[in-house]
């Protein structure tokens, strides 16, 4: 067993270090976002809905005033008809 021969072979491999050439080309890319006309329409509609009130004051104000005055009356027959119509619509 010759240890010296092994170390000499190892030295040969260490002297032949491969030099890597680094060829880097810098490519400048930017992220871009393009919306279709449908997407723009969707955004416009979504914005309009978010800005709209959940309660239609023009419809609820007169009813609210009648309830507060005690003059609001609901027909039992009318209520029953609407209830049955809703049930059958399912």
Mean pLDDT: 82
Helix % is: 55-70%
Structural class: mainly alpha
Order of helices and strands: HHHH
Largest sheet: none
Residue windows where pLDDT falls under 50 for at least 5 positions: none
Straight-line distance between termini: 93 Å
Q: What Rg is obtained from the alpha carbons, in whole angstroms? A: 41 Å
What form results from the Cα inertia axes? rod-shaped
Number of strands: 0
Portion of residues in beta strands equals under 5%
Number of helices: 4
Strand-helix topology:
Elements: H1 3-15, H2 37-51, H3 57-69, H4 76-89
Can you characterise this structure?
The chain is mostly helical and 90 residues long. It has a domain at 62-90. It has four helices and no strands. It has helices at 3-15, 37-51, 57-69, 76-89. The N and C termini lie far apart (93 Å). 0% of the residues are buried.
Summarize this structure briefly:
The protein has 90 residues and is mainly α.
Characteristic key phrases:
90 residues, mainly alpha, rod-shaped, 4 helices, single chain, 61% helix
